[in-house]
Records
---
Amino acid sequence: MGDVRRELSNPPGVHPPQAHYSHVARAGQTLYISGQLAMDASGAVVGVGDARAQARQCYANLTAILAHYGGKVGHLVKTTTYITHWAYRPLVAAARDELFPAPPYPANTLVVVQGLAEPQFLVEIEGIAVLD
Amino acid sequence: MGDVRRELSNPPGVHPPQAHYSHVARAGQTLYISGQLAMDASGAVVGVGDARAQARQCYANLTAILAHYGGKVGHLVKTTTYITHWAYRPLVAAARDELFPAPPYPANTLVVVQGLAEPQFLVEIEGIAVLD
Amino acid sequence: MGDVRRELSNPPGVHPPQAHYSHVARAGQTLYISGQLAMDASGAVVGVGDARAQARQCYANLTAILAHYGGKVGHLVKTTTYITHWAYRPLVAAARDELFPAPPYPANTLVVVQGLAEPQFLVEIEGIAVLD
C-alpha cells in the first residue's frame, strides 16, 4: 500500500488551531478531522450559551475542511459528538438534522463530558470521512 | 483507491437508531460502528442498573452489526468503552472477557464520562473493525 | 483489498495491559493504538500528580509502540487526548510541543472527562497512525 499519502493541514475558512495540532490529517482517501468547536474563521466564538448555534458552527467547520479536499458531508462515515450537558442533546440533534435531512446518515457516538477546551464551548464534533 | 465503497446502514437484529445516525458505516473493508447502548432489537433497555448486563448487550449489538457484513468480533481492531462510573470498570471487563476469552484482543480505550444518551445507560461501546 | 493483514500486539518497552486488550492493532498500514496511560515498562505509575510528566510518559509509550512497527511519531495522523481536569491542558500541550516542535502536527481532539482507568491517572492519549 505504497499509495498512502499523508497530509496534515489547516484548510482556509477555518480558524487557525489554538495549539499545535492540525484540523485534519489525510491518509489515502481517509480524512481524520480534529474535534471542531464553535469558532468562526477569525477564531471568534460563535453561539455563546447556544448549543444549537454552536453545533451549526462545528458542522460548518467540518464542511469547510471537507471542501478543501473536494469532499462533502456525505463523505463523513463517523462522527463523535461531545456535549457538556444533557440539555444540549436535542439542540445538537436539530443542527444535525439540518445537515442530514435524509439518509444515509454517518455513524455517530454521543457522550456527555465534563468539559471541552474552554468553558464557553458546549459542543465538540470530530469526524472521519472517506473520499471517493 | 477507487475501490472504496461506502455504505451506511442499520442492520437487522439491532434496534433502529433513536436519531439521525447509522449504526455502522462501511468504507472498503473498514467498519465504523456507532457507540452501542444496552437496547435490544425492539429498543427496550436491557440491564437497568446492571453494568455487566448492559455491556453484554452492547457487545451483542456489535456482534449483530458485524454479522451483517459477514464479520465476527475477531474482526474488531479497536473499541472505545465509555462508562459513567468507576464502579462499572470490573463489570464491563467481565463481559469483555466472556467475549474475548483468549488473545488476540482488540485495542481499547476506556474513559469515565459524565453521561451517555440517557441516564439509564451506564455503558457505551463503539468499535472499528477491519474485515478480511 | 485482500492485503489487509491484521495483527494485535503488545510491543516490548510498554507495560503489559492490565486487562484483556492489546496496546495496538495493525490493519494494513494503519495502527490503532489504545489510550496510553502514564505507566513505565514495569507497569509503575509515572508522574503522580504531575500532568506534564504523565503526558510525556503517554507519548513515550506511543513512541515505543510505533517503533515496534518501524514507525515514528510523525506517522501519527490523529490523537485523542483525555484529561481529568481543566488545569492540565497547558501542561499536556507543553509535553506535546516537545514531541512536535514544528509542523506537521497530527489532528487531535481534547476532552475533559470524569475519570480514567484509575484515579491516579490524569491524562490518557490514544492515536491512529498510518505507516509509509
Note: Strands of chain C lie at 6-9, 24-27, 30-36, 76-83, 107-112, 123-130.
---
Amino acid sequence: MTVFFNKVAIIGVGLIGGSLAKVMKAQMLAGEIIGAGRRRESLEQALQLGVIDRSAVNPASAVDWADLVVLATPVGTFETLVREIAPHLKKGAIVTDVGSVKGSLVKAIEALLPAGVSFVPGHPIAGRERHGVTEATEVLFQGARCILTPTKRTDRRAMDVVQSLWTAAGATVVEMDPDMHDHVFAAVSHLPHVAAYAMMCSVAELGAGSEQYLNFSGAGFRDFTRIVASSPEMWRDICLKNAKNVVDMIDRYQSSLSCIKKAIHRGDAKKLELLFRQASDVRRGMQ
Amino acid sequence: MTVFFNKVAIIGVGLIGGSLAKVMKAQMLAGEIIGAGRRRESLEQALQLGVIDRSAVNPASAVDWADLVVLATPVGTFETLVREIAPHLKKGAIVTDVGSVKGSLVKAIEALLPAGVSFVPGHPIAGRERHGVTEATEVLFQGARCILTPTKRTDRRAMDVVQSLWTAAGATVVEMDPDMHDHVFAAVSHLPHVAAYAMMCSVAELGAGSEQYLNFSGAGFRDFTRIVASSPEMWRDICLKNAKNVVDMIDRYQSSLSCIKKAIHRGDAKKLELLFRQASDVRRGMQ
C-alpha cells in the first residue's frame, strides 16, 4: 500500500520528526509538510535544510487541514499539546506519535481527541546519542523496528496507513500491547539510560580530578555512557511518564547490584563467578 | 631503545598474553617464547597459531632461564603463581604483569620475589569483549595506553626495558601510583563491568519471556552490556582483588541511582532534568 498525504503537520522537528519528514520528502509521500515546535531556531534550521516546507507559529495552526499529524516532542508535552490541537483537527485526520512511552499516555491522548480523528500510537526504535534536526536523515529508520501499540479504540484503516508510512521509511512494524510496551522498554531502554546517567553522576561526584579519571576510561566506560549524550529533557519525560515501570526496574537493578556487592564484600568467589557467568551467557545469546 | 630477550615466558596465553607474544614475534624481540597456562587446549591452539614456540608443562619450568616473564592469567592467580615460579627465576630476570589490579597486589608480588629479580607492574588498557588466544593480534595495543605502576622498589633499568616493549607494541606508556591506579580503574572500568553484569541479571530475572524483552533492546542496551561478554573469571578476580575500591564505587553508584529514583518517584521534573543534564554535560566533555 502506498500512502500520500496532502498536508502533514510535524510537531517537534528534531532528530525523529525531522527524519520522518525527510523520508516523506524523499519518497514524495506528502504534498506539504508544516513544522511546529517551541524552538524557533530549530524550525529555521529545518526550513533552511528543506526538511519542512513551512513553519507554523503554533501547533494549533500547523494542524489546520492536516491529514496526518505527527507528535514528535518530548512525551511530557503530549497531553497539553493534544488539548491545544484537538479543536483544530479536521475530521478524518490521523494523529500518530513517536514517543517512547505508551501505556496510560495512549489512553490519555485517546480521551482528549475528538470523534472522527484516529490516533495510532507509535514508537520507532531509532534513537541516537546525537539529537536535533541537523542530525535528521531519511535513512534513520532503515532496518529499525517501529512498534505500533493499537488499543481497542484504534481505527484499523488508520493503523494500515501509519504502518505503510513506517514500512516506506524502511522500518519493520511490530504490534504490541501499550502496557506491555512500557514494561519491555523500562527494562531494555529506560533502565540503561538511567544507569548510564547515574554512572556519569557517580564519577563526576568524585570531584576535582574526576576529569583525570575519565582520561583513563576504556571502551567499556565509553560504550556504557554513550547514551548519556541523548537529550536530558526527552529522558526526563520518558522516566516520569513511565515512572512505575522505571522505578520497579531501578529497584530490581539495585537488588542485582547489592547481590554482586555482597559477594565481593564477602570474598565469595564462587557466587561472584556464577553471577557473572549467567549474565555473560544471556548476553552472548542475544547478539 | 630496542629490546631483545633470549627467552620469554608467557604465563596465560589468552587475548593479552597472546597479543604481546605476537608483537614480539612480529618485531623479532624474542629468541624463544614459551607459553604456560592451565588450559592445555589454549596452549595447543597458541602453538598451532605460531603465537608461542613451545609450551611448558607448568609455569615453574616455563620461567627457567627466562629473561622476561609475563603474568597474563586472571589476577586472582598471581600470588600462587609467583610463589610457584620464584625459586626458578634466574638472577636478572624481569617479571611483569598485565593485570587490571595493582595496589596491594603489587606489594604482595614484590614481597614474594627473590632478590636479583625485578618486578615491573603493568596494565595495558586493551580489553575486548572477545577473549582467548584465537582473538590475539599484534595490533591490539596500537594506540592504546599501557599503565606502569612502579613502587620505590622498582628497578629503573627494568622499568625502561618494559616501557620499550610496550612502546614497540604501539602503546603509550603512562606512569601511575599503584593505589591511585586502583581508585581510577574501580571508577572507570570495574564499576561499569559490575553495572553491566547487574543489568543483564536484572533483565534475565524477569523470567520467562525475558528473551522477548531482549529482542527489543536498542543500541543503548547493546552498547551498555557488550562488556558482559568478557571473561567472567577475569572479572571475578578483578573485583575481589580490588574489593574495597569496587565496593565503594558500587555504593556511590547506588546513591546516584537512588537519587534519580527518588526524583522519578516524586515526579520532580526539575531535579531529574538537572541530574540528567549534568551527566550529559560531563559525557559530552569526554568525547
Note: The beta strands of chain A are 5-11, 30-36, 54-55, 68-71, 94-97, 118-120, 122-124, 145-148, 172-175.
---
Amino acid sequence: MTRDPDGPPARRRFLVQGAAAAVGALAGAARAEEAMPPGTPEWMTVPGADVGSQTYGTPSRFEADVIRNVPKGLKQYISASSRTPLQDLDGILTPNGLFYERHHGGIPDIDPARHRLMIHGLVETPLVLTMDDIRRFPSESHIHFLECSGNPSFEAIKGQTASDLVGLVSCAEWTGVRLATVLREAGLKPEAKWVVAEGADAAALTRSIPVEKCLDDALLVYSQNGERLRPQQGYPLRVLLPGFEGNMNVKWLRRLNVTAEPAYSREETAKYTDSMPDGTARQFTFVMEAKSIITRPSGTQRIVRGFNEITGIAWSGRGRIQRVEVSVDDGRTWADAALQAPVLTRALTRFRLPWSWDGTPTTIMSRAIDETGYVQPSFSDLTAVRGLKSFYHNNAIVPWRVAETGEVANGYA
Amino acid sequence: MTRDPDGPPARRRFLVQGAAAAVGALAGAARAEEAMPPGTPEWMTVPGADVGSQTYGTPSRFEADVIRNVPKGLKQYISASSRTPLQDLDGILTPNGLFYERHHGGIPDIDPARHRLMIHGLVETPLVLTMDDIRRFPSESHIHFLECSGNPSFEAIKGQTASDLVGLVSCAEWTGVRLATVLREAGLKPEAKWVVAEGADAAALTRSIPVEKCLDDALLVYSQNGERLRPQQGYPLRVLLPGFEGNMNVKWLRRLNVTAEPAYSREETAKYTDSMPDGTARQFTFVMEAKSIITRPSGTQRIVRGFNEITGIAWSGRGRIQRVEVSVDDGRTWADAALQAPVLTRALTRFRLPWSWDGTPTTIMSRAIDETGYVQPSFSDLTAVRGLKSFYHNNAIVPWRVAETGEVANGYA
C-alpha cells in the first residue's frame, strides 16, 4: 500500500474502478436498487413535506441509526454514560442531540425561572443569581471539546467502533459569562484558593476547582451550539473548564462555595483519581492530555481498494494541536496529516490524509502532538509509566487493523 | 444614556439594583416563584432521567417556544419559508433543528442509497455518482452562513422580532467535497462557462452557477454541524456556494449540467432578479452584501435600566467582517463593537458592546463593514439607489426603538 502516490488531491483524479457508473450504464440498469431508473425518481413526482412541518427539525429517517451509543444491560442508568457516534460524524462540531452524556444522578428537569446560583464562602458579597441576572453579564462564545476522563478506561479498550473506544468526547460552541466576572462581582477574599461547584442533580455532584482556573478561561455556560443547553448538558447552567476532565465541568450548577481548601468530595477522592503501579494515587489530575483517533476508516467499517481518505479528530487540554501524524504501516513510518482550519485551542481538530490502499492487510493509526510538544503515547508506553491499575486518563494511540477484505477492526482486540 | 461609562467589562461590576438578591434575602423569601425555598429543590430529591433516555436529544421542555418562525395563514406551505429565531440564539452557529427553511416544492424524502448525482454536458467523461462515491472524495469542512435573498424583502420590514425581519439567515459547519474536485474528475471542456444545478425536489429547482465559482470555494455538501444534512437542508446532498444567495445553493442535488450559457430558469428570470427604479431588472446578483442586526436587545424584548450587553450578528458574502459599529443614539454617534474570534470568511460574526441604559427612550442599531470596505447602508440610502420596486437583496440597517418602559420595537414600523 502507498500513501497517495499520485500527488496531492488538488492535482489528481479519485474515481475508482466500479465505484462510479458512466451515464450510459445508467440507462440500462436492471435493478432499481443498483441505479436510479432512467425516469424521474418518485420523490420528484409529488410535492414534498410542508415548510414548518418540523418547527424543530430532526434527522432524516434514513439516519435513524446515528444515535448516542448507550451501553446495553447495565443494572442502572442513573449513573452511567452514553457515547457520541464519532465514526458517523464529520468536521469538528458535535450536534447537541448526539453530545456524549455522563450523569451521576440522572438528568434533572429544572425550571430555569426557579433555578438559582448561589456564590458564597470567601467572598465579600454573597450572591444569589437568577438566570436573568446571569444572562445580563457580558457574554463570550468559544468552541471547546469536553471529554470524560474515562475515555476509554484502561479496562475498556476492546470496543468495536471509534465510539466504543473514544466516544466520551464531543465539541461545541459554548456561550456564557466568564466565571471571573461573576466572582469579581462577589469579590474574592485574599485567602480564596478553591471554588467548590455543586450541581442541582440528585447526586449534588461536587468538584473543587483551583481559583487560578476560575480566573482564567472558565465560563458559566447557558448556551451550546447557538441554543440553550440541553438538559443532558446541564440546562440551564453549567461550568465549562476548557481542557479539564469532564466531570469538573459541573452541570445544573447551583452553588459556588469559595474556600481555602478543596472539598475532597467523592468524585475527587473515591473516584477520578489515578492509581499508580506503586500503590499511590494521583489526585486532581485535571488536564486531558493530547489524543487523537482515526474515525474513518474505523472499526466495523469496510474500505475498498484505491483511494481512501483517512480522517479523524485530535485534541489537547493544554492548547492547540500542532501536528497529527498518521501511520498506514503499523507505526513504522508516519506522515503529517492536514489540519482543518481554524485550529482552535482546546477544541477538536479534524485531520485528513489521502491514502491509496492496495489491498494488503495493515494497521493504521494516528498520534497527536500539541503546542507544548507533548506526543500522544502508545498504550504500551503509557502503561510503562502508569501501570494497569489506572482507570482514567487513558490517551493512548488507537490502532485499526485493516483486513484483506477491507474490514476494519480494533487493533487492541 | 451612556456607553459603558465605567470602562471595559473586565474592570467593573455589573450587578444591578434589584436584579440580584443577597443570600440573606433568600432565606426569607415568601413565594417559591420568586426565589428557591431555603431547602433542597425538588429536582435534587429524586433521581433524574436515565442516561440514554434520549438517544437523539431534544431541548428542555422549558424552551418549547424556541422554534422555527413559520408564517401563519399562508395558502400553501409547499413553496414558502420559515425563519431562525435569531433573538433566542447565541454565538455564531445555528442548530440544525432551527436552521431557516426555504423550499419551492416541499421537502422530499430521499433514500440516499438510491440517490444519484449526474454530471454531464460539456465534460470529457459524464459521471453518475452514488453517495458512497461522493463520500470517497477528499473532504473539507468550513463554517459559512447561508441567507435567502429575500431577507427581508423590501415589502416586509414591518415584522416585530429579529427573526421576523432577518431570520432567513443561519450558519453552520459544512462538510463535503470541493465541487472543483468532482468537476475535474469529469473533465471540463474548454467552452464550459456555467454549471446548471438541479434539485431532486418536486420543483426540480434549477440554478446556473458561473464556472469560476464552481472552481473556487464551492462545495458539494453532505454534512452540516457534524451530522448528515437534514431533509430540510438538502439531504443527502446539496451545493454550497459561500456568500451567494440561498436558492443557488441547490438542495437535494441530482444533476450538474455543464454548459456554455446559463439555463435562464424560472428562479433566475421570473424570480430572484432585482427590479430597478428605471424599469430594468438586475439579473444574476449572486453575492449577499454585508449586513448586521442587533439580536439582543431586539423587538418584543424588554430591558431594565443599567448594564445591558448589546449583541448581534454580522456577515458578508464578500469575505470577512472587518468592523461592526453600534449606535445607541439613533445614528448620531457610533462605537466599535467587539468581534467574537475567530472571524471567519463568509460566516456569521458575533459582535458585542457593553451599554448602560439610563431609561431615556432611544434607538439602537448596528452597521457592518466588510473587508472590502463596503458599509451596510441605511434603508433610505439603499432605496435611493434601488427604489422601492425591488424585492430581494435588502441589506439595510435595522433600527430598534427602546421605549421609556424598556420595551424594544422595530424602528421601521
Note: Residues 1-11, 16-35 of chain A have pLDDT under 50 and may be disordered.
